Amino acid sequence: MKTIKKIGLTVAALLIGSSLTFGYATEILNAPATEQTERTSALTPKRPAANNVVLAQSPLQQPSIPPAPTLDGSPMLLADAMPNIEKMSYTDSANQFSGGTDASVYAEIDWLRGAVLQLQKDSAKPDPKKSFSTPKLGGRMFFDSYSISDDPNKHKNKAGINEIRLTITGTGYEVFDYKAELSTGGDGQLFINDAWIGVKNVPGLGYFRAGHFFPETGLMWMGGTSQTTLTDFGSVETAFCGGRKLGVSSEHLFAHDRIRWFYGVFQGANINASRAIAEDNQGFIFNTRLSAAPYYADGGRHVLHVGGHYSYVEPKNDYTEISTLVAGKRFLGTNYGTLTTGAFDSNHHHRSGFELAYQSGPLKAHAETYVACSGDNQNRTATGTFVELSYFLTGEHRAYSLPLGVFGAPTVKRPFHPFKCGDWNLVDGLGAWQLVAQYGYINLNDWRGATGATGGVQHDLTFGVNWFWTSNIRCIFEYTHSQQNADNAHIHSHQDVFGTSIRVYW
Predict the structure, then answer these.
(1) 3-class state of residue 365 by DSSP
(2) 168 and 181 in contact (C-beta within 8 Å)?
(3) Pick the CATH number of 136-505 from 3.40.50.720, 2.40.160.10, 3.40.50.1820, 3.40.50.1220
């Protein structure tokens, strides 16, 4: 009987409580919003004070996670942020906090949101002090076309892909950098170009680099194919400057980067040849270059560059050769009136050169000279000189790098950008326009009569126009008159070369 009474009292209490709750909830739903807030706030469970909010069990609670941001986006400790959040929680200006919801919930949400954003940033950008950066992909594409006429009135054309190159670069641990580069040309062969790793601030060595890269020679040559003034290096550079080699080098900067000194030791054969030849003797080269910018102003818009280089060469198999190319165009090959010293026997020889350039705004003058002397008392010398004058009609100038001592690409003021407006095709910006004149002279007369040599002299006169659509895209139009004279080989020829090129860099 007592059990039945207890059950009955319990059921009655539940019915009375539920009816009171239902009636109170119905009254709240029918009341104004402000009255709802006042009534429900009395029923909201009390949370700990803001200063006591601790996410002890959260895996995100790490020292590297930033504090919760304030409502205006600036970082602030959670305890300092809470008064602002609570103030906005109970005002009409922050409707998202109306309804009496505890402000500490929003503080936790804001903190977690900041933590997630920071973790996303950390995963996208590796710490440069502890790892290598994400590699950067670059490259270039050259599409060239040439028309060649020689003195028997024969005309030959050559068009195609001059070069496609892919480059990967990166940095790491704040002191390392690296570069890996592959290229292919019209012949379809794949070549290893730059492949090296460098480290900064090495005691006694400055910037140290090891791998496959250029011994440093002339100013134009060190700019690389992406920074040639016209379609290619001139005949002088292609005759006297060598390719990339396996080696190690050291670089030093002085006088606020105004003076740069480079020296290195290299294997005689390039990596594309040496990797396929199993021989102890690959030859070696000692190379050094010193350059300076005694006058540098306005971020390189006005600059005077002077420099010189020297190489001692012990070639593979104790012989060497100096040859010329028509207008210096490597894309054309060696089929057009080439002069050569022949493969002369010499267990060592010397190469040196001097470089001078002055830029004043859009005007730039540039000259270089080269000398190659054979060893073994043969007393034979080859010389080459070129001069160049260029002017930007649109006012741009070539960038100049103090740490590298070379000229780079211009920054185009108004890039060429076609667009459509209604039924009309219009252009916004004309790009940058540059006029160029070059003269090159090579003298191989010391080799007249030598076995396998033509000797002689070559003159190249070139006029060209660069049209830079942007700093990364340009069109080139040029004309070169090339002439060779070598009496002992009965060479008296000349060629007229018309060239065009479209070049893309990224």
Answers:
(1) strand
(2) yes
(3) 2.40.160.10
Cβ atoms of 289 and 306 closer than 8 Å: no
How far the first Cα of the chain sits from its last, in Å, is 94
Rounded Cα distance, 433 and 306, in Å: 26
Global pTM value:
0.71
For 429, the 3-state DSSP assignment is coil
Q: Are strands 302-314 and 176-184 parallel, antiparallel or unpaired?
A: unpaired
Element (H or E) spanning 112, and its range? Answer: helix 103-124
Q: Where are the domains of the chain?
A: 31-124, 136-505
Task: State the pLDDT at residue 291.
Answer: 96
Give the model confidence (pLDDT) of 214-233 as tens digits.
Answer: 999 999 988 888 888 998 88
Taking alpha carbons only, the member of 65, 62, 54 closest to residue 120 is 65
Q: Write the pLDDT tens digit of every residue in 103-113.
A: 677 777 788 88
Q: What is the DSSP letter of 132?
A: B
Q: What share of the chain is helix, strand, coil (3-state, %, to 5)?
A: 20, 45, 35
Is 86 exposed, middle or buried, given 0-12, 13-18 or 19+ CB atoms closer than 10 A?
Answer: middle
Residue type, 308: G
| Nearest Cα residue to 338 out of 235, 427, 212 | 235
